[in-house]
Design a protein that fits this description.
- This protein is an alpha/beta fold.
- It is built from 5 helices and 10 strands.
- Strands 5-4-3-6-1-7-10-9 form an 8-stranded mixed β-sheet. The chain has a two-stranded antiparallel ribbon with strand order 2-8.
- The chain is globular and about 40 Å long.
Length: 194
């Protein structure tokens, strides 16, 4: 069984974007140390257009071969004219409003997201599935998430999109690792307690 990992950036107070979904203020923390770590440890999570800039366009995947994201996350690339933001991965966009994919390499999951993700997890392979973003789909997939990798940026938003857009449900995870960077970013890794 492959793992579903929610690898996500958030503020100290747990928001993945402001009330409009914008998280661009976090870009200020993408310094040499942090980007070097990201390029080495999670190269597949760098969008295809940014991989060449970091010299990792041919880097082997370390954790994931598949990405699932919501329309809000996908729209960031679309608004910049990028229809295949992670061309080096199998790409899925969960959306009930996007009628057709704007790119042949991106599959739209219009309904029964949980069943589709369960099928992806059941595939053979050593690499997992990356849940890239979307508060709503993270909430829908909470029971399927096996691991959290939370990149916490030293900012407080006060309000915005929470990590999980779901009703109240206590779900336990165990802390596996913490990595602190000089710029104040913390990366915490948690494993699901089942």
């Amino acid at each position: 069984m492959r793992k579903l990992t929610y690898f996500v950036a958030c503020s100290i107070d747990g928001f993945i974007g402001n009330p409009d979904g914008d998280a661009s203020s976090m870009f200020a923390f993408l310094d040499e140390e942090f980007l070097g770590w990201l390029a080495k440890e999670y190269p597949e999570t760098v969008a295809t257009p940014g991989r060449a800039g970091l010299g990792i366009q041919d880097a082997e995947h370390r954790h994931f071969d598949t990405v699932v994201q919501g329309l809000g996350s996908y729209r960031v690339g679309l608004d910049a004219g990028v229809t295949s933001p992670y061309a080096h991965l199998r790409q899925y966009v969960a959306s009930r409003t996007l009628a057709a994919s704007p790119d042949p390499d991106v599959e739209v999951i219009g309904d029964d997201l949980v069943a589709r993700v369960r099928a992806l997890k059941a595939e053979e392979g050593d690499l997992g599935v990356w849940l890239c973003g979307g508060a709503q789909i993270a909430g829908e997939l909470l029971d399927e998430i096996d691991e959290l990798v939370i990149k916490t940026y030293p900012q407080v938003y006060g309000a915005g999109l929470p990590m999980f857009g779901a009703g109240f449900a206590v779900t336990d995870f165990a802390l596996d690792a913490v990595r602190a960077f000089d710029n104040g970013v913390l990366v915490r890794t948690y494993a699901r307690r089942r």
